[in-house]
Amino acid sequence: MNDTAPYPIGTPGTPWGAAEKAQWLASQVRRRSYADDVVAAIEPLRANFDVIEYGTLQYADERYPLLAIRSRDWDDELPVALVTGGVHGYETSGVHGALQFVREHAADFAGRVNLLVAPCVSPWAYERIHRWNADAIDPNRSFRDDSPAQESAALMQLVAPVRDRVLLHIDLHETTDTDESEFRPALAARDGKPFEPDGIPDGFYLVDDSELPQPAFQQAVIDAVAKVTHIAPADAQGRIIGSPVVAPGVIRYPLRKLGLCAGITDARYKTTTEVYPDSPRATPEQCNRAQATAVCAALEYALAHP
């Protein structure tokens, strides 16, 4: 993306207005089904978990129930662990890795922790395989008071009653080739800024909270996932997506300041996972398993170090 090949919507250097956003929205195509892929996968879990509809996402004539999976044996004496996926709807393994964790591993933590899992925070974007919502807003920069994103506001309302009791929050994401080919150029165009290529790291990495870093916790997750898939190396400048690598496969962001999902609680242990599904060294099944493994490792460490 450069001056000879500008993003096809808008005028370079000029932020989008209503007309450009409408043009962008008109170009979005439904490519998969939230009802078939996610809601149907949640239904069998009702046998062992409480499934709650914590809100409704409404765009034009499209309605999406926002679903969360909750421990049936909820005990107010136990800590809470929050697992979120699909904040960026196109990041497929975040959604299906969260569901795989519930199906295959959640029972192992019964009686030890209260689980609250929101596997697909952004169903409209899941169906379009997109990063933004229908208003051209990134939900993962919108977790703040008076959020402009319906998805973010609904999740924050769900979490509010237990926010002060959350021990762990793990937010499941992907970094894909389309970050560089579509989503970062679109962001630059939307905001009227130049697009600066940065490259895509090949492998799994984590984003720690720079305001409350937990290096031993992050390392425990990295060590577990390394048995499932490869860990992203630093680039020639010692960075991953422009941020200094503070330990193998770990960078840090100020989560709350940036309005990121992983910053919505006061949890001692917070992390954002990133897998690379476009790697020739990883399969979709491997990516899902890496996400589920990360959740398990995060839980084991947090419960052992409360």
UniProtKB/TrEMBL annotation:
The keyword Chloroplast does not apply. SUPFAM superfamilies: Zn-dependent exopeptidases. Keywords: Hydrolase, Metal-binding, Zinc. Its cofactor is Zn(2+). Residues 30-306 form the Peptidase M14 domain. Belongs to the peptidase M14 family. This is M14 family metallocarboxypeptidase.
